[in-house]
Structures are given as structure tokens and as C-alpha cells.
Amino acid sequence: MDPVEELPSMLWGLDPIFSAFARLHIRDILLMPESCQVPDIYFYKSHPIYKVDVLGTVVYKQEREDFYSYGVDDGTGVISCLCWKDDLMKVQVDSDKREKEPHDDDQGAFNPAAELRKLKRTQQSRCRLEIGELLRVRGPVKTYRQQREITAYAYYKVDDPVMAAQIEWMTDVLQLYRQFYNKPLHLESDTACHSPVSSLSRATNIIKDFLQQKLVSKFTPYDVQDLLQPLFLRGTEAAPAHQEPVAGPSACQQLHHLLKEALQVLQDEGLVYRRLKSQDEVYFVTVQDKDLLMAAKDIIREDSKREKFGEKGCHVLHILSAVRQRHSLNVSKAALELVLQALECNSDIVSTRHDHYTTF
User: Fold this and answer.
1) Average pLDDT value for the chain
2) Which end of the chain is more exposed for a tag (fewer CB within 10 A), N or C?
3) How far apart, in whole angstroms, are the C-alpha atoms of residue 315 and residue 321?
């Protein structure tokens, strides 16, 4: 991340994600840029991250005297997880069996020592995993010898014979991405409420809320410009009636300029796009445009059958080029990524690996 864009460290605590164990895809954990201010702090979008929550399959394992090193794969990537042993983990289960006392087998009698040994053996079995078993890890992200890894605060084996836990996990993670992780962090103070940056941010959020609540598929600037009018009322009402007009752009000109900048921000984020560059200035809402969704879905379904894409699936750049040829030249990569997320959420497509997609 550009040092100019990085949030000052004194403000990191204002982001609730910073204090939580972020449930990110391993692919994103591996690609997060590190902070230029504090080591072992990373940024996903504009959110500072230092501890994560991961669920995945063990694909490799190393055991040392004091720790386990598990390679965890969640379908998007593989990351090494350093899991330290506590004192109980260093005690062998066989030694517990040799310590068993004769009265451990008494029927109907509660034996605290025997129950403690059973609890110890259960804990050991939950923390010793083999390749192919499901592991959940929570802890901070570190970079050791130029390799990204997780140092576990807590870890345990997850029993998931019918994959119910994994399906629920993937659903929750996608929901977190849509509602929190993929949304930029906005920190506005009262002293900056009238600054150009603050006004643009507020205007963008007003239009986003309108599109989300009304679920419109397309609109023109005239449909949303009145929504931004309250941003200029406060300054107009505060001016004395006898005050001479000051040279500069009028409120109407400021409104049009702010609306233009807000719509450009929405285009840059991929939330809206213009199918045709014309004087009508019709903007289409990306995830509500059924024609765009259908075009992307058809391209992936058709091209996945080709031998070239049979194994890996279609790369996002190939899909983008095909969508531009078939649907609109003005579809950006950011817009296409939102389309692919919507299709994957609806189970219309599935990601096979990084930036590759296919149909079921």
C-alpha cells in the first residue's frame, strides 16, 4: 500500500476489524501489503489487519519438540501455521496409560484423576492432526524468512464428516467480505465535515445507500442529484441575508461537480458502469444488471468446455475480454470482479484457483 494512502497508526483502533480475528481467504492473507509504519501489521483494502481466523485442510505437517507446523489449505491458497505445544501436549499419551490405577475401571465411581487423564488425552487428540484433517487456527500474521505464516493463539481439529462446517464457514466469510472487508473505511471528524474529501465520501455513501435500498438496475445523474442537495443547505442557511455574494462557483455548479466526482468513484469501485458512452449518461448498477450477469455466466459456461480451460477454468482477464466484446467495452475489471462474486454467491459458478472460474 502506498504510504500516502495508509491510515495513520494512531487511528487503527477506530476500525473494529483491527481488534477482531479477521476471517480472510488465505489468498488475501498472503497478498496483503505490510504496513510501512509498524511491522507485522497488514492492510486489506483500507483495513489494518494483524490477526486472522482460518479454517482449512492440513496438506503438510512438521513436528518439532516444542511446536507443530501445519500447512493449511482453504481452497484459495496454502499458508503455514505455527502451533506451539503446551506442557500437556508434551506429555505422551502412552505414559498416561501406564499411570492408570486399578480403581479407574470401577463402575459407577467418579474418579477425578481418571477423568483428568481422559481430558488430557482428548486435548492431545484434538491438537495432533494428520494430513487431510480439518484445522481451525486463530492468531497473528507474521513474516518469517520472507514467508507469510500464522502463529496460533488457539488451534484445534474440526470434525466435519458431511462438510457442514466448511459450507457454513464459506458462507459466513463471503458475507463478511461483502458487508465489511470490501467496504472502505471512512473516518470523518466534525472538524473535517465540510472538507472536499469528506463531502465526496458522504456523497458517495448517499448514492450507495440509495442504490442498495431501491435495488435499481440503472439510473441517470438527474435521478440522484437531489439526494446530495442537503450537503449544501447548511452552508446556505448559515450565510447572513445582507452578505454580498462572493465570487466563485455557485451551489448548483458545486452540486454538479460533486455528483460527477461521486459517480466517478462508484465507477472506479466497479459498483456502476456506463454500457454506452452517450449524452444520456445512463449508469447501470453492476450486480443488478441481469444482462451483464448472464453474459459473464454464459461465457464461463461455454468456454469452460474448451480443452484450453477444461482443467483450470477461465481466467478473469479472459472473461473480461470476452464480456467487453459481447456486452460492453466499458466494463472494468473491478465491475467484473463484483459480477463474479455475485455469481459465485448464487452458486452459478465456482472459483477453481486464483482468478480462475468454471461452472459446476
Assistant:
1) 83
2) C
3) 10
Q: What is the C-alpha to C-alpha distance for residues 180 and 244, in angstroms, rounded to an integer?
A: 46
pLDDT at 160: 93
Pairing of strands 147-151, 78-84: parallel
What single letter denotes the amino acid at residue 30? L
- The pairing of strands 356-358 and 350-353 is antiparallel
Residue type at 211 in one-letter notation: L
For helices 316-326 and 290-303, the axis angle rounded to 10 degrees is 120
The tens digit of pLDDT for each residue in 30-77 reads 999 999 889 899 999 889 999 999 999 999 999 988 889 999 999 999
Identity at 8, one-letter amino acid code: P
CB 320 within 8 A of CB 333: yes
The pLDDT assigned to 5 comes to: 66
pTM beyond 0.70: the answer is no
Query: What are 146's three cell numbers?
Result: 520472507
How do residues 96-154 score in pLDDT, each as one tens digit? Answer: 444 444 445 555 577 887 777 776 666 666 678 899 999 999 999 999 888 999 999 99
What string of H, E and C letters represents the secondary structure of the chain?
A: CCCCCCCCHHHHHHCHHHHCCECCCHHHHHHCCECCCCCCCEEECCEEECEEEEEEEEEEEEECCCEEEEEEECCCCEEEEEEECCCCCCCCHHHHHHCCCHHHHCCCCCCHHHHHHHHHHHHHHHHCCCCCCEEEEEEEEEEECCEEEEECCEEEEECCCCCHHHHHHHHHHHHHHHHHHCCCCCCCCHHHCCCHHHHHHHHHHHHHHHHHHHCCCEECHHHHHHHHCHHHHHHHHHCCCCCCCCCCCCHHHHHHHHHHHHHHHHHHCCCEECCCCCCCCCEEEHHHCHHHHHHHHHHHHHHCCCHHHCCCCEEHHHHHHHHHHHCCCCCCHHHHHHHHHHHHHCCCCEEEECCEEECC
Percentage, residues of the chain above pLDDT 70: 81
